[in-house]
Design goal:
single chain; alpha+beta; copper amine oxidase-like fold; 4-stranded antiparallel β-sheet
Length: 108
């Protein structure tokens, strides 16, 4: 048994698939989201926020990050939802609307 410092192996499209799935679950709260690149180690998407600006989001074994931000201590998020709530006030408001509507459906 040999030990290696490499990260666990994933299929070549693992991060792309994960990012595509996460984007499909957030369509209610973003104007647009498209995967723009992927490798066996990571994937990136360009997301247009409801506020208008685009952000580039990366997914790797470290989690979700906003690419291109100069801060070395860049925030890492466990989910795309967490990242969007922290980044987009309109996403957070729309998310609450959707959750409230679902709760009302259940209550009826």
């Amino acid at each position: 048994m040999s030990s290696s410092s490499k990260s666990p192996q994933h299929p070549d499209n693992f991060y792309r698939t994960e990012l595509e799935q996460a984007l499909s679950e957030q369509v209610f709260g973003v104007a647009r989201g498209d995967v723009i690149r992927s490798t066996p180690e990571d994937a990136a998407a360009l997301i247009t926020l409801l506020e208008g600006p685009d952000i580039e989001v990366g997914l790797s074994s470290a989690g979700y990050t906003i690419s291109g931000r100069g801060d070395v201590r860049q925030a890492k998020y466990e989910t795309l939802d967490d990242l969007l709530v922290a980044t987009s006030p309109l996403y957070a408001a729309k998310r609450m609307e959707v959750l409230f509507a679902k709760l009302q459906e259940i209550a009826q």
